[in-house]
Amino acid sequence: MSVKHGILAALEHGPRYGYQLRVAFEESTGATWPLNIGQVYTTLSRLERDGLVRSLPESEGGQRPFEITDAGHAELATWFATPVARADRPRDELAIKLSLALTTPGVDVTTVVQTQRTATMRALQEYTRLKSRAEPPRDLPWLLVLDALIFQAEAEARWLDHCESSLLRYPVAPPSVPAVQPTHGSPPQDALAGDRSDKHDERSLA
């Protein structure tokens, strides 16, 4: 879910100002995606620039509400009607991290996997605890978000188990640290040693 479309969805309920939009966004996602007020106003500025929202006169308290435009309604409707493609989602940082761990000298991949599993199981326990406190149907939006997080954590734990078994099945030799090459213009150590030996021989002959 993008902040942009979350704010448009909140404005479908009527004009709201920044703080109200922040609260509405966090309530709709079960507070699993906290926003700071700066993100809200930065997004509102872009939405207004693109003609998706318009600002209204300030209230007596100095707060400026925003309302969704016809173009904003259309944008939100298109977003809801369009499936989320895998290519649209952020890269899997954990998969990239483990791939790099396999090819980076000095990294214990097994420890990386075990550390991640501990964090994943801790998160899974927390999501399950939060779910037990929810009260359907009032908290159904929050429950759906929590269920998604629980399923993702469970899948991640299974994938980590698969990674660990793969490491046992196909042991990978740790990458070696490349030798430090002499800088340009500096003679190699063997040449220096030979030079010192030659000078010693010259002194001995003298």
Outline the structure in words.
It is a single chain. The protein has 206 residues and is an all-alpha fold. It starts with a helix and ends with a helix. Helices cover 62% and strands 3% of the residues. Mean pLDDT is 83; it is low at 199-206. The protein has a two-stranded antiparallel ribbon with strand order 1-2. The chain contains 8 helices and 2 strands; from the N terminus they run H-H-H-E-E-H-H-H-H-H. The protein has helices at 3-11, 18-28, 37-49, 70-81, 93-103, 109-133, 140-169, 189-205, and strands at 53-55, 66-68.
Largest sheet: 2 strands, antiparallel
Low-confidence stretches: 199-206
The gross shape turns out to be elongated
Q: What is the helix content?
A: 55-70%
Q: Count helical runs.
A: 8
What are the SSEs and their pairings?
Elements (H helix, E strand, L loop, with lengths): L2 H9 L6 H11 L8 H13 L3 E3 L10 E3 L1 H12 L11 H11 L5 H25 L6 H30 L19 H17 L1
Antiparallel strand pairs: 1-2
Helix pairs in contact: 1-2, 2-3, 6-7
